[in-house]
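Entry 14. Structure prediction run on the chain below.
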Amino acid sequence: MIYKYDFLIIGSGVAGMSYALKVAREKKGKICMICKTSLDEANTSFAQGGVASVTNLAVDNFDKHIEDTMIAGDYISDRAAVEQVVRMAPSQIKELVNWGVNFDKNEQGDFDLHREGGHSEFRILHHADDPGAEIQRGLMAAVRACPDIDIKENHFAVEIITQHHLGAKVTRRTPYINCYGAYVLNPDTQKVDTYLSKITVMCTGGCGAVYETTSTPVISTGDGIAMVYRAKGTVADMEFVQFHPTVLHHVGETHPAYLITEAMRGYGAILKLP
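Output returned:
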C-alpha cells in the first residue's frame, strides 16, 4: 500500500506528539504518526522527578539555569542549544498545560517547585512523582482528539526513503539528500507499506536498551538512529547516552531498572561508588 501525507512523524513520545499537535494547530496539512508499539509505551512516560523551567522570577532567571546546565554538562554542552531550551522552557510548559497536562500547585495556586541535583534554585515542575506519565497521558488525549492526526500504532518504520531508492547514488558526501517518507511494516498484513510525505520528522528517541542495565524501556533500541545512518544522514554525539543516575539495581534484572527519583539528590542525597 502507498499512503501520502504532508507530515510523517516517526515516534510518539513527547517530541513526536507535541510536534504533531503544533502542526495540526497551524492547519498545515495531513499528519501521520508512526508508533512501533502502543501509543502509551514511550520513554517519556518513565520520567520521574519533573521538568526544569524558570518559573519563580523573584529568585530565579535564565542565566542561572543556563549556567547550572553548562556546569552539569562539564561545559561540553552546545551553549546555543542550552540557551534555546532554557529560554523556551516557560512557553513550552504553557503549551503542555494548554494540551491538558497537569502539574502540582501549592495552596497559593502557583506551581509547586522542587529542586533536583545540579540546580541552584527550585525550578522543577512535577506531577506527584510521575510527571512523565502525566505528560504522556495529556498529550495522548490531545492527539487522539485531533481529527487531523492519523495514528498508526504497532507499525514499525524500517527505512527512510531517499533518492537512493529511486536509483541515484547517495554517499555521505552527497550535498543534498532528499527524504520522501519511509517504508513501514504493517503488523496486520506483515508487508512493508510506503508512506510518502513532504516532511518527515524523526522522533524515535535513543538506544539505551542496548545495555544490559538501563533506566530506559525495552523499546529504546535506536531504530531511528540506525535509519538515519543508513540513509547517509548526520549522526552526532553518539558517545553521550542518557541514563537516569539513580536506580535500584538487581543483578539479572530485566530493564528498565527501578527508578529512584532524582529529586533525592536535590535534597542532599549523594551518589557514591561501591
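The beta strands are 2-10, 31-35, 51-52, 124-125, 149-153, 156-162, 179-186, 191-202, 247-248, 258-259.
Filed with the rest of this week's runs.
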